[in-house]
Write a structure and sequence with these properties.
mainly alpha; 30 helices; ERMARD; DUF4209; EMARD protein
Length: about 675
């Protein structure tokens, strides 16, 4: 890993030339008054006149345009340096309100006064994120579905209608096109070191953002439209993100030493790491994560390209190729179908990959990188809890890829707890993990049935025409029989052959089964398709439980208050009879679901020809639970029908389950 010391840039030669040299070739001094009117407005025509087009198809000539705009950018940078903060606010702040994050742009102005390379890069990343979000809000004036990618957003007809195509072409020279400077992607994907981002490009984008505000104001006045801002995404259930212990100053001090010595860190990127840790200590949590995520990507890219023997992929891709990003590095196979060797190199491959998938990729996870880079999060309210996890995970990678002579740091008392947490990490946001969570939540709901108020037996006997439903007892026997068949696949201490549907044991069983570690990394499509059905079943079971609880409580209150009519009293008592078998049948279904989760990979792998039979079994259960939701709803209250429905379903389940048990036996 000495490569981390020898790499001087992650920009390929053409990209390095475009960003670091091309815009400096014209030595002319550009007069700021050419693009800035007397009343402080941007003269867009003067800016767009500096853009060149290819004669062949009239598309933007990015090389000539970057060279032409270089002096303009320098002039804007000098102009901003000549202003005080108060002057900048008076002249430009009102034109930045359309972004809904004026303070971020004012921070960028502050950064430009001192030209600290790391802070300029950070400011540019935050600027592009907020600008993208604001442009998406403008796009929604003309359409209902905003593009996810910045390049598609900038190339859209909707924005061209509002701002003009020539203006959008100027923006695409700086961001959003792989043929231009592409500053947003180069920074967010960790290719550019701090010293490789000219401050004048950051200044120019700040200037252009104000100019867009002026154009937008004119458009809104003419069309009488109102610009609405989408609400920010808020991280919920932060306790689910609690993986590592809280980082204190001592831990961060050790991390600062690791950063300087770890082979995971490219030396050209060291300022980013130091700045990220400093930001965390200063409670600037969004800044810390924004700085750190690209460095995790470039560090893993270094490992990826080394272990897969493709060192050229360490550099920025050209416009005709793809970047080597997290998505590819976390994939099971390379684009040439060879097995990705990166997980093999990681000491705890499942841990590292599952953590990254959880926090960055899984749709039900926080998707921290996407939400930050696309401007979906209020930067000022970024939670410490999330930042703590990202920084702690980064520290474990620093430690993992450190030399043996750093033993004292790696074995430090504040580092070992982080490594221990990392080594036992299990996915929390993979569909299988979410299914386990659903099952446990449903189990808790069903447990509440035992606490439901019931009518005293002596009062029931006073109601004529109400008898104990014999079919309920038959159903319970059938449930017991099916459960007994499954005993051989259950943990011994969680079940009893004498009482297989014991509620306490069933809950203990479900808890233990859900604690069973299941490989979620690289789940094949058949597994994910099965999990989708299992989650639907679990959702239906939970809805049945909630409906039963609501109905039982409401009817009991009406019984006590004597507000039930005769027919309603009979229906209520039939419901109480149905609850006796519905509780064990729902627990049985949850047990079947969890057993499916534990065995699903093996069954799909060893019995590929039984896959359709497998789905048939699950769809039968799904159909039953869907019908059960309907029958137990407050609108239907068809409790007698639930008996017949359950009887038919259990007969089919028992029949198919015999075949299913064979599959499970083969799988184990």
């Amino acid at each position: 890993m000495a490569l981390s010391d020898s790499v001087t840039t992650c920009l390929s030669q053409p990209v390095h030339y475009a960003i670091c040299k091309l815009g400096f070739e014209k030595k002319e001094t550009y007069d700021i008054n050419n693009i800035l009117s007397g009343n402080g407005e941007v003269c867009w025509q003067a800016v767009t006149e500096r853009v060149y087009y290819l004669e062949s198809d009239q598309s933007v000539d990015y090389i000539k345009s970057i060279r032409s705009l270089g002096p303009v950018c320098e002039s804007v940078n000098v102009h901003f340096k000549s202003l005080t903060k108060e002057q900048f606010i008076i002249q430009y702040a009102s034109w930045l309100h359309w972004t809904n994050c004026t303070e971020v742009f004012l921070e960028v102005f502050d950064v430009l006064q001192y030209t600290q390379t790391t802070e300029v890069a950070l400011g540019l990343m935050k600027l592009t994120s907020c600008l993208e979000r604001a442009l998406g809000d403008v796009y929604l004036l003309k359409s209902s579905d905003c593009p996810f990618l910045l390049r598609d957003l900038l190339a859209s007809e909707q924005l061209a209608v509002v701002f003009g195509q020539a203006v959008m072409n100027v923006l695409r020279i700086f961001i959003g096109s792989p043929y231009g400077l592409n500053l947003r992607n180069v920074l967010w994907h960790g290719f550019a070191s701090p010293q490789e981002i000219p401050a004048k490009y950051c200044a120019m984008l700040l200037f252009l953002t104000a100019g867009l505000g002026q154009l937008l104001q004119t458009y809104l006045l003419q069309t009488k439209c109102i610009l609405l801002h989408r609400p920010y995404v808020i991280f919920v259930s932060l306790e689910e993100l609690d993986v590592f212990p809280d980082l204190n100053n001592e831990t961060l001090a050790v991390a600062e030493e690791l950063v300087k010595l770890s082979s995971f860190v490219l030396k050209t990127m060291l300022p980013f790491w130091i700045a990220a840790l400093t930001a965390f200590k200063q409670s600037r949590y969004a800044d810390s994560v924004i700085l750190l995520l690209p460095q995790l990507e470039v560090g893993l890219r270094l490992l990826f390209t080394t272990t897969n023997k493709c060192p050229n992929r360490l550099l920025t891709a050209e416009s005709s190729a793809f970047y080597t990003t997290f998505d590819e590095m976390l994939a099971k196979r390379l684009d040439n179908e060879e097995v990705n060797q990166l997980p093999v190199v990681l000491e705890e491959p499942a841990m590292a990959s599952e953590f990254l998938w959880d926090f960055l990729n899984h749709q039900e996870g926080p998707r921290v990188r996407d939400r930050l880079s696309h401007g979906e999060i209020n930067l000022e309210a970024f939670p410490r809890e999330v930042a703590n996890q990202i920084v702690a995970f980064a520290i474990t990678l620093l430690c993992r890829f450190s030399d043996e002579n750093m033993f004292s740091l790696k074995e430090h008392t504040v580092i070992k707890p982080l490594m221990n947490c990392a080594s036992c990490y299990q996915s929390r946001f993979h569909p299988i993990s979410r299914l386990k969570k659903q099952v446990l939540e449903c189990m808790k709901s069903i447990h509440l049935w035992s606490e439901l108020p019931t009518v005293p037996e002596e009062q029931v006997q006073t109601i004529k025409g109400v008898e104990e439903n014999a079919e309920a007892s038959t159903l319970i026997l059938m449930i017991s029989e099916i459960t007994s068949q499954l005993l051989q696949y259950m943990p011994q201490n969680c079940c009893s052959s004498d009482d297989p549907i014991n509620s306490v044991l069933a809950e203990r069983l479900l808890t233990e089964l859900c604690d069973t570690r299941v490989c979620t990394l690289y789940s094949p499509r058949p597994v994910l398709e099965i999990v989708v059905i299992l989650r639907k079943i679990s959702t239906q079971c939970h809805q049945v439980s909630e409906q039963v609880i609501a109905s039982a409580e409401a009817r009991y209150t009406q019984w006590v208050n004597k507000t039930l009519r005769s027919r309603q009293r009979h229906n209520y008592l039939r419901m109480l009879n149905s609850i006796k078998f519905l509780s064990p049948v729902l627990r049985l279904i949850l047990i079947l679901i969890t057993l499916e989760v534990v065995s699903v990979h093996a069954v799909c792998k060893k019995n590929p020809f039984d896959y359709q039979q497998y789905l048939k079994f699950l769809k039968l259960i799904l159909q039953y639970t869907e019908n059960l939701v309907t029958y137990t709803s407050p609108e239907k209250n068809k409790w007698d029908e639930t008996v017949e429905l359950t009887n038919k379903a259990l007969i089919k389940i028992r029949k198919i389950n015999d075949r299913k048990l064979m599959l499970m036996h083969l799988a184990t």
